[in-house]
Design goal:
GH3_M, acid-amino acid ligase activity, binds adenosine monophosphate, globular, 21 helices, alpha+beta
Length: 635
């Protein structure tokens, strides 16, 4: 969720606003150029976590008790004492109808007293389409406040960031207009397009290498090319590099590997390639490129031509002090590759946030990725926590649903309403919880779906390690494929094989990130109905299965695959009879119970992978990119 976060220009420290001892405003104002004021504010927020949480809830209820949604539970009352008793904990499916009514033109006040100004499309999906989260003008200010607080934290640990620039590779994604005229778009696209982003502190002092026009270019290839070009031209000033997620940063490195010769040629000649046609990109990049730089081009070429790209980041941007990318959660799979390219630079995950709300800041940005914890800021929303079993596989109340899917739980009726939650300041060290938020924007007791573990407290505010997202089995970029979607895709894809007498006896999956972009791998064990010998597999037919698998996955997967090129073609590996028995033997040898053994639908262990790989009889790739278009909202 990086937004060119850290830096401060000491010479900018002039105006000041008082730090707020009593937090009369939910978005406190302070001078973002004043690191001390920022740090003091963080002290105050975390010290008064309980008090602030109570205030947040009071404020949300006071403002929204008369909305149709809350009236249905609270009968117009706004006292926080009855909130937990009367208002149910919900999943997206429970509130989807309200969101869709707003998208179709009904007034915001069915859920929020403040006008909903846009809908933020999450990477989590419902029915194959992105979930949409309401947002307000005030929420944009709250995000800006949050981003500004990242600055003093980073400056506390890394000196003199104001002496150079940040190369942050940021991109916008497609957006749609809903029937009501509200835009529906990803949270970062919304933020980058806002005046809050354009006017972010220090932007006008050119402390970022990417001109706003290149970030806002809707053509991701032109955007990437121009941002890298600007980063290379200004390489000696760059003190930190980054992107939002590790996957995006690695994609940029791959792009550089594929395009460095052309980039160098542009630098050598001092002119931009003709295929960059976006007017904003052309004007802004041309002014940075300015004139021919033959020596600079020679230096860059020399590094890029080298035998190995190990440590290339340090070589190309020699003054870089760290790489700012999220490497927690599903992004942890990219750490080894990032380490290879980075040459030992610290990997910094600054924040934990979502389309629903921004949650927490990493107060120790230089800590090892495995030690990263986020401190939840108590003024961002009202937070509750559902206790989760220690093995963090199954939420306590989900046990009877076999821990399989959220949908199973929801369909069990009113269980959700009786969920016991714990307040922010009452979570216990070492315990696991699922995050529930009540936002200023019209979400009430909403299950975000993230499982977190308490690692400590900063003053009175708990710190959490991100453990995993509930029920996600595969993720390469922002896609989040759950077990159920995978099962449906597998069922669809196996259809052409059925009439030929094939049986699909087992399947599992694996996110292969050994190359960039990563891709989904599915292992299928096939046998014939009549005998156990598999005939030669027809390549066209198997490639058709791969394509159906991709077509069946949700729209975020298909967007990553088709529009963003952030996921490579899906691969199907057919294994011989008995391969999954061998996998079971292995899992049992590792401690799984024979009676309760269920085939894992995603494997991560290298040994398990080896067991299946050694039994592969055929590998097939999807030859077509799946269909994708910006989704439509049904009226
Ligand atoms: P989205 O709704 O598409 O904005 O995605 C938000 C989700 O991304 C969160 O609920 C998390 O599951 C994941 N996420 C965001 N920030 C982090 C982080 N710092 N570490 C791990 N996962 C994250």
């Amino acid at each position: 969720m990086t937004c060119c976060s850290a830096t401060t220009n000491s010479y900018l420290k002039h105006t000041f606003y008082p730090c707020l001892p009593k937090f009369p405003k939910m978005v406190p104002t302070y001078d973002p150029n004043d690191d001390e004021a920022g740090l003091k504010l963080l002290e105050d927020l975390t010290t008064n976590a309980h008090h602030i949480q109570q205030q947040v809830l009071e404020e949300i209820l006071k403002k929204n008790a008369q909305t149709e949604y809350l009236r249905g539970f609270l009968n117009g009352r706004s006292d926080k004492e009855i909130f937990k008793e009367k208002v149910p904990v919900v999943n997206y499916e429970d509130i989807k109808a309200y969101i869709e009514r707003i998208a179709n033109g009904e007034p915001s006040n069915i859920i929020s007293s403040q006008p909903i100004i846009e809908l933020l499309t999450s990477s989590g999906t419902s029915g194959g389409l992105p979930k949409m989260m309401p947002s307000t003008a005030e929420e944009l200010d709250r995000k800006t406040f949050f981003y500004n607080l990242l600055v003093p934290v980073m400056n506390k640990y890394v000196d003199e960031l104001d002496k150079g620039k940040g190369m942050y590779l940021l991109f916008i994604k497609p957006e749609i207009s809903t029937p009501s005229g509200l835009m529906a778009r990803p949270v970062l696209t919304s933020y980058y397009k806002s005046s809050n982003f354009r006017n972010r502190p220090f932007n006008r002092y050119n402390v970022y290498t990417s001109p706003d026009e290149t970030i806002l270019c809707p053509d991701s290839k032109q955007s990437m090319y121009c941002q890298l070009l600007c980063g290379l031209v200004q390489r000696h000033e760059v003190l930190r590099v980054g992107a939002v997620f590790a996957s995006a940063f690695l994609r940029a490195i791959k792009f550089l590997e594929d395009n460095w010769e052309e980039l160098c040629s542009n630098i050598r000649k001092g002119c931009l390639s003709d295929w960059i046609t976006d007017p904003g990109c052309r004007t802004s990049v041309s002014s940075i490129l300015g004139k021919p730089y033959p020596e600079l081009s020679e230096l860059i070429e020399c590094e890029c031509r080298g035998k190995s790209w190990e440590g290339i980041i340090r070589k190309l941007w020699p003054k870089t002090k760290y790489i700012e990318v999220i490497v927690t959660g599903s992004m942890a799979q990219y750490i080894p590759t990032l380490e290879f390219y980075s040459g030992g630079l610290p990997l910094v995950s600054t924040m934990y946030a979502s389309s629903e709300c921004y949650f927490g800041i990493n107060f120790k940005p230089l800590s090892k990725p495995s030690d990263v914890s986020y401190t939840i800021l108590p003024n961002m929303a009202y937070f509750e926590f559902i206790p989760v079993e220690k093995d963090h596989e199954q939420v306590v109340h989900n046990v009877q649903c076999n821990g399989n899917s959220d949908q199973n739980c929801t369909s069990k009726g009113n269980e959700e309403e009786n969920l016991e939650t714990v307040d922010l300041v009452d979570v216990k060290l070492g315990h696991y919880y699922e995050l529930v938020v009540t936002t200023f924007t019209g979400l009430y007791r909403y299950r975000v779906g993230d499982i977190l573990m308490v690692t400590g407290f900063y003053n009175k505010a708990p710190q959490f390690r991100f453990v995993h997202r509930r029920n996600v089995v595969l993720s390469i970029d922002t896609d989040k494929t759950n077990e159920e979607d995978l099962l449906n895709a597998v069922k669809n894809a196996y259809t052409p094989l059925k009439p030929l007498g094939f049986l699909l006896t087992e399947y599992t999956s694996f996110a292969d990130t050994s190359s960039i972009p990563g891709h989904y791998v599915l292992f299928w064990e096939l046998k014939m109905k009549d005998n156990s010998d598999l005939p030669e597999l027809d390549r066209n037919l198997m490639e058709q299965c791969c394509s159906i698998l991709e077509e069946s996955l949700d729209s975020v997967y298909r967007r990553c695959r088709k529009k963003d090129n952030s996921i490579g073609p899906l691969e199907l590996r057919v294994v011989k009879h008995g391969a999954f028995d061998a996998l079971m033997d292995f899992c049992v040898s590792q401690g799984s119970s024979v009676n309760q053994y269920k085939t894992p639908r995603c494997i991560k262990s290298e040994e398990a992978l080896k067991i299946l790989d050694s039994r592969v009889v055929g590998k097939f790739f999807s030859e077509k990119t799946p269909f994708w278009e910006p989704f439509k909202i049904e009226t």
